[in-house]
Amino acid sequence: MQRLASALLLRVRPSRIILAGGPRSGKSTFAAALSDGYRIPVRGTDELRSLEWSESSLVASTWLDRPGPWICEGVVMPRALRKWLAANPEGKPADIAIWINAPVSERVRGQDAMAKGCETVWDEVFLPLRERGVRILIP
Asked: How far apart are CA 137 and CA 123, in angstroms?
């Protein structure tokens, strides 16, 4: 997966990258590898754990207004994208969005439920993102 995504990134040279998906799917690890390889700062939604669910996605949605380069990653990103799209009738929140939801290590029941919720919201934002010109990668 990382090899495919890295090849695409070399060709496309995006400056704003979103990594979204369920828990334990390797988003943070992948973001760190991309950051090291391309010297792009990473914002991870784990830093928003102290906030309530709705507030965390609202805060993460504001990250998408900042000029690149950046990588934003985490389970909150699908909901942050939904909020950003609702608040911005035009434009694109990122150059590329990478959906990673297959677990790389075992999930507990609550993490499985969170992954399903992330996928439900991702399904809502997928087409609007494509329609706005965001490149989507689903390894």
From this structure: 14
| pLDDT, tens only, 15-68 | 899 999 999 998 998 888 887 767 789 999 999 999 998 999 999 999 999 999
Please tell me which residue, 86 or 46, carries the higher pLDDT value. 86
CATH for 2-137, among 3.40.640.10, 3.40.50.300, 3.10.20.80, 3.30.70.100?
3.40.50.300
Q: Which residue has the tokens 């704003």?
A: 16
DSSP codes of every residue in the chain: -HHHHHHHHHHH--SEEEEE--TTSSHHHHHHHHHHHHT--EEEGGGGTTS-HHHHHHHHHHHTTS-SSEEEEETTHHHHHHHHHHH-SSS-S-SEEEE--S-SSPPPHHHHHHHHHHHHHHHHHHHHHHHTT-EEE--
Domain ranges of the chain: 2-137
pTM above 0.85?
A: yes
